[in-house]
Write a structure and sequence with these properties.
Blueprint: H1 22-37, E1 40-48, H2 50-65, H3 72-86, E2 92-94, E3 101-103, E4 109-115, E5 118-124, H4 132-147, E6 161-165, E7 184-188, E8 192-197, E9 202-215, H5 221-236
Oxidized coenzyme A binds at residues 71-73, 111-114, 119, 143, 164-168, 176, 188, 190-191, 208.
Amino acid sequence: IPPVPVQDFSQFGEIEEKPMGRLLKAGAVNLHRSWLNVPHVTQFDEADITELENFRKAMKAEAEKQGTKLTPLPFLIKACALALKAYPQFNVSLGAGGDTLIWKKYVNIGFAVDTPDGLLVVVVKDADKKSIYELARESSELASRAQKKQLKGEDMKGSCFTISSLGSIGGTAFTPIVNAPEVAILGVSKADMKPVWDGKAFQPRLMLPLSLSYDHRAINGADAARFTSFLSQQLGDIRKMLL
Ligand code: CAO
């Protein structure tokens, strides 16, 4: 690829050149490799999380008694784990020659953690087999270890699918880069109250924006739309997560 021409910025004003940190450099290599190798498409959708948020708020005190903080993240992990079981074509990696698919029989969900040194992806193993409380406890423990630079190698390995949640910060949508060799990543933006037509009137509903980027070599657009619809249904009626 043609290189970006080097410029002397000091001719325009004062500058300071600093080395990139180790984490930032490693992230830059991974993201650039994925960007160049993976033909990306992003599918957008929304989930009505009005009931989920009511339930989550009602359970917060109880969760604290159990020693954990109940954020939307464990529900997202659970919904993604169920979606990977329902649509196993998202739980694959391309084989070395590019003409086979490796189907994974386990469901490990990674999620991005924003730390002062850069981005880290930590992994909740066997997420499909864990309760919401277990997912809450484990994900907050992993995120806190990431912040304190106390992660072990194992904590960052073996992810099948990644969640990048920017919902606590803001934004309406974004196009995350697939964490190759995975074939899909879910971007989550800030939930917002919106008027939703129920057939008779507009109702105020809390809508969560979802952005699913996927590797178009492994996944087709129709399956991506089915996957986000499924996620939207699970998050829209969390009773379905029990079935
Ligand atoms: N919409 C609205 N509010 C949201 C939300 C959403 N989608 N997601 C979280 N929030 C709110 C919650 O309501 C919560 O507050 P209360 O529990 O008091 O109601 C608060 O934000 C908690 O947010 P949190 O960030 O502490 O916890 P989390 O479990 O949602 O997220 C983590 C944890 C590690 C994912 C997050 O801290 C983080 O690092 N996100 C950044 C990831 C990132 O950088 N991605 C970019 C990667 S490049 O593709």
